[in-house]
């Protein structure tokens, strides 16, 4: 199991860049000239912030390969043994956001399947920690230091105010070397399309981020948190100056929910959509290149009730422009059910605004990827068979999606997950909340009762 910064597979592209003059805020500044004032330095800021960035150590046991559910053993043979478990240790980073209560933000993939978690401060002190809650969709986890004392918390900045070109500093524990600071700039905002499971709306930076930096801090020059370092593009396994961080506003909102509920309560917009492209704009004769194209509105959803229609282009959310469908998903997914949001739309080239009340994720209609990433591309609803047996009905499946590749088809009815019978989306969500490493769906298709195996 990976316990370090996520790596994205890509082709390496080497680009040489020479700066015509040094920037005074960067650490790589020429030596001081005798008689002149002291050179600018990041040291004063880092001295205040470093105590708030911690190392996260995890221990646990993981199966070398997924266990085979009982329902599948008849296909493979009753004597098929379960695979042995293996001990693992991992290192990552975290950020103290509440010194009094000992709350630490980190990445979900840092602590996933951990049975023991400990926090080491930059002064060498070590504390046990417990998991308050985590969310694999956003890759955020909240820990609590046990019996905390003399902690330092970090101030959190408004990440919506970031601009490309702002200076940034990354702090973490790369390769277990110990606390390390690197500097760079904000290279891009709202970055998506990285083929990571879950939500993608990242800050991109060229501040060096490596394995072990996951969960660490991305800072502005005031020493305020602007992001949680999460992933890197690394064809060779090391930093090439393309790193990604979860925006601080998103991380703060999710942390507040984990503190209050122990889980994330996501509002649902009730649409299916895609990125706005030049081809779509041309086909629909639209003079817009950015936003979220609505391909389908789910029946009885908040969007349907508000009058959103397929073919609409969502260009803003609560007055803030939208660059992509991924950004829309990310912002809606961090908003609680029942919240009213204002959507700026383009319909037939004309602007209009509607107010949508977000549905609960326990409603009778849902996008399957919000229940399990392996089901991405399917739309679900509460349904039942002709004999009255209740289950989860597959209303649609996108071609070539993970759900389609798993074998799910329109009008399938799921009546079981692993060894648990389910009769509704709410029950399916509860089973999936346990994050099984393998998913065996009991599906009724026509007159057949079949099993589909997902990983």
From TrEMBL:
SUPFAM superfamilies per the UniProt record, alphabetical: PDZ domain-like, Trypsin-like serine proteases
Domain PDZ: 258-349, 355-447
UniProt-listed CDD domains: cpPDZ1_DegP-like, cpPDZ2_DegP-like
Signal peptide stretch: 1-27
Cellular component, GO, one term: cell envelope
Catalysed reactions, as listed in the record: Acts on substrates that are at least partially unfolded. The cleavage site P1 residue is normally between a pair of hydrophobic residues, such as Val-|-Val
Enzyme class: hydrolase
Compartments reported by the entry: Cell envelope
Keyword Protease: yes
Protein name according to UniProt: peptidase Do
Organism: Salmonella enterica (Salmonella choleraesuis)
Gene from which this protein is expressed: degQ
């Amino acid at each position: 199991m990976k316990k370090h910064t996520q790596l994205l597979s890509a082709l390496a592209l080497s680009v040489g860049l020479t700066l015509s003059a040094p920037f005074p805020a960067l650490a790589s500044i020429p030596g001081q000239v005798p008689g002149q004032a002291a050179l600018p330095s990041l040291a004063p800021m880092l001295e205040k912030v470093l105590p708030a960035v911690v190392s996260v150590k995890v221990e646990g046991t993981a199966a070398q390969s997924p266990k085979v559910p009982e329902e599948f053993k008849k296909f493979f043979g009753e004597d098929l043994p379960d695979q042995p478990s293996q001990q693992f240790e991992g290192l990552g980073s975290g950020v103290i956001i509440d010194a009094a209560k000992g709350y630490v933000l980190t990445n979900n993939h840092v602590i996933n399947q951990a049975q023991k978690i400990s926090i080491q401060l930059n002064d060498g002190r070590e504390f046990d920690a417990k998991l308050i809650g985590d969310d694999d969709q956003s890759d955020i986890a909240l820990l609590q230091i046990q019996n905390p004392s003399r902690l330092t918390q970090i101030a959190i900045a408004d990440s919506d105010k970031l601009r490309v070109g702002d200076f940034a500093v990354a702090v973490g524990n790369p390769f277990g070397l110990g606390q390390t600071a690197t500097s760079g700039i904000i290279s891009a905002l709202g970055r998506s399309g990285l083929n990571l499971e879950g939500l993608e709306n990242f800050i991109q930076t060229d501040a060096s981020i490596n394995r072990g930096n996951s969960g660490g801090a991305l800072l502005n020059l005031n020493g305020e948190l602007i992001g949680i370092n999460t992933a890197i593009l690394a064809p060779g396994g090391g930093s090439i100056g393309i790193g990604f961080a979860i925006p601080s506003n998103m991380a703060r909102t999710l942390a507040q929910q984990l503190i209050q509920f122990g889980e994330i309560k996501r509002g649902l917009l009730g649409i299916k959509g895609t990125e706005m492209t030049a081809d779509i704009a041309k086909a629909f004769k639209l003079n817009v290149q950015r936003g979220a194209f609505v391909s389908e509105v789910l029946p009885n959803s908040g969007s349907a009730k508000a009058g959103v229609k397929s073919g609409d282009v969502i260009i803003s959310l609560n007055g803030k422009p939208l660059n992509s469908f991924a950004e829309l998903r990310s912002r809606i997914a961090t908003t609680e059910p029942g919240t009213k949001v204002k959507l700026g739309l383009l319909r037939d080239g004309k602007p209009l605004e509607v107010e949508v009340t977000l549905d609960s994720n326990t409603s009778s209609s849902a996008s399957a990827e919000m229940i399990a990433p392996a089901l991405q591309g399917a739309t679900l609803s509460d349904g039942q068979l002709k004999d009255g047996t209740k289950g989860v009905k597959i209303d649609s499946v996108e071609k070539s999606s993970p759900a389609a590749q798993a074998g799910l088809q329109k009008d399938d009815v799921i009546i079981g997950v692993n060894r648990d019978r389910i009769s509704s989306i709410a029950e399916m969500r509860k089973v999936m909340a346990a994050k099984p490493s393998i998913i065996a769906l009991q599906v009724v298709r026509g007159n057949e009762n079949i099993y589909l195996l997902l990983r």
